[in-house]
Amino acid sequence: MKAWEIVSDGSIDALALNDRPMPEPGPGQVLVKVGASSVNYRDLSTILDPVGRGLPYPTVPNSDCAGTVEAVGTGVTRITPGERVMGCFFQNWVSGPISPGAMASALGGAIDGVLAEYVMLNETGCVAVPEYLSIEEAATLPCAALTAWHALHAIEPATTDDTVLILGTGGVSVFAQQFCTMLGIRTIATSSSDEKLSRIKGLGAAETINYRDTPEWETAVLELTDGNGVDRVIEVGGPGTLQKSITAVRVGGTVALIGILTGAGGSIVPTDIMRKSLSVRGIYVGPRMMFEDMADAMAADQIKPVIDTVFDFNEAKAAYHAMQEAGHFGKLVIKV
After folding, report:
1. Is the pLDDT confidence value at 195 over 80?
2. If DSSP states are collapsed to H, E and C, what string results for 67-87?
């Protein structure tokens, strides 16, 4: 079978499409013929800095896939051949709080990823694809959608009385907007592109702010909330935006810290967190049972993922370049 591999620290263009032996499922495992894999910023950062992440060569990138079960190993009871499934980002996190064991089962990082023609997954690390979704759409759910869902439910679920601040218009942010619209939650969205702001407003955002035109966007957020601040922030920027998010959130509010799109550098004022009694919660995807609950909720409302571009398997490098250029709205998908 063919698989894309990280074989050096030479960045995107050093990725290699190589032959690998066809895997055979062992006890508790399922062999999946991959139909599509979506790209997350984490996948790009893994390719850009494999040394910093301590990855061995070769490593197959990407955490997210959907496909059809080809074969199952002994003892498998919840998955059957021919079933369409999505792989879970963490292969060993079924429910409850995250653990070191779960962390060690992250696809495309701690273990080989899914940008291959076939992939071996744990029986407990698969979720059935909702019937209404295509394989390409389903491939967008394991990381970005579940991260957004988790962020809206962390500590305690957001409610219809809340206002949520959504930073940017990448995969997680667009899913967060779709979920807020589904749940009847008011949102304020930011972007540097008026076109993208128009699109996210079309998905239900109540207010939008162009942070290039309004660098002090946290002040604009306070003005839009009568000086109180938002109840929750979907914080994907990281240190470069975190202090602004802390300013923009209300006393006793929640900052769901998800990404580092602005880089790892930056500074915060810890006393601002203390004085406002904020909850700053790191969100790292979520467990399988939460994934299943999310998929059921999406199916009930027929929520369709927003896909920007679908690339052919042989064009995988172009998908990562597109992620790096950050011009997309929603998800980038590689069809296998």
Report:
1. yes
2. EEEEEECCCCCCCCCCCEEEE
